[in-house]
Amino acid sequence: MRAALWLLALFGVAVAVALFAGNNQGTVTLFWPPYRVDLSLNLVLMLLVGGFALLYAALRGTATLLELPVRARRWRLMQKERAMHAALLDAMAQLLAGRFLRARRAAEAAIAQESALVDARSAVPHRRRLRTLSHMLAAEASHALQDGATRDAHLQTALDGVPERGADAELREGAQLRSARWALDEGDAASALERLSALPVGAARRTLALRARLKAARLDRRTAEALDTARLLAKHHAFSPAAAASIVRSLLLELIEGAHDTAQLQSIWQGLEPAERAMPDVAMQAAQRLAVLGGEPAQVRAWLLPVWERLAEPGASALPEHQALRLIAVLQDNLDGLDGPWLARIEAASQSRPRDARLQYLSAMACLQRELWGKARQLLGQAAPQLADPALRASAWRALAQLAEQRGDTDEALQAWKQAAQVGR
């Protein structure tokens, strides 16, 4: 369509020129004494147009001729820029392919090309980014080659060339993150944490930085810092819910196990979130540690109350078997000074689930603590043959033997001791 319109316009111009020139009878007379020259007006117009075209062509030709050195210099710089970009891309490809020595050579070639362009006073687009990336690629390859000196030299050059603030601040943050990862690869957790601490606040809260901080803190045995980092990662959904719960639980167990006195342990417990206190493993570990450190049995039972409520739920136990057995064992060891509410809880649980030998056993041990000998003997007699756990069954038979000895029933005591010995084999 456009070509047709141009063709119509050309025909229109041709028709207009023909109409104007065909009936134009005008002349132009030039007087050059003693001569007189008469020229047709059409010829004069043609000469003027031709002269203008010739003059324009001469000026354009002269300008092009004078511009040739500039264009040649520009072409040479363009070739150098292309060589620099090609070297940078080659370094990235070689690094991904695991050919680290070639990657470092290509990155150093890109750095050399960039330096040559700077010496030539050429304005390279994104020069700072290209130079920094080239140094980081060379440092990455040197790290893979275990050449720490060359790696640190390239890293420092890259950091020196990027300001802490500005449009290229992300390059500096990325270089610091990579240096922290290199320190972790070498097992230097202290250096990794130091480099992560140098990051701005916003960059330090990114998922990648938090993952590195978590790994460094765990490696450096900074459990409290690792726990705070794991909580942040869980809030950012950096892990699946199951993985986040597992990591937080393992850190909590490590933190609790590292407590040296009851005051420190209680401070740790108060700093836990409600959901963390309700974790069965965490609550039982804290209770056991408190008992080991000489804490009050009442405090131990108070920490175990949320876990007990899960065990005492009607119907099927809400706790796995190993956790339920551990809870029974911890409560059994901390029944000193058992108060009425706890005794009522235990009795209610055993009555609501009379077929659960574990609850019957714990109720019997609570009765022993309160010196309710008859009821304890009855419950132990029901629970001992049904207990599946060897440790609880042996303990139940030993308690029955001791009760029989108190009554002076030697035959029953010997039979109970025999059963306890057989279970303990």
TrEMBL record:
It is a multi-pass membrane protein. Pathway: Porphyrin-containing compound metabolism; protoheme biosynthesis. One of its GO terms (cellular component) is plasma membrane. It is found in: Cell inner membrane. PROSITE patterns: TPR_REGION. Residues 26-115 form the HemY N-terminal domain. Involved in a late step of protoheme IX synthesis. This is Heme biosynthesis protein HemY. It comes from Pulveribacter suum.
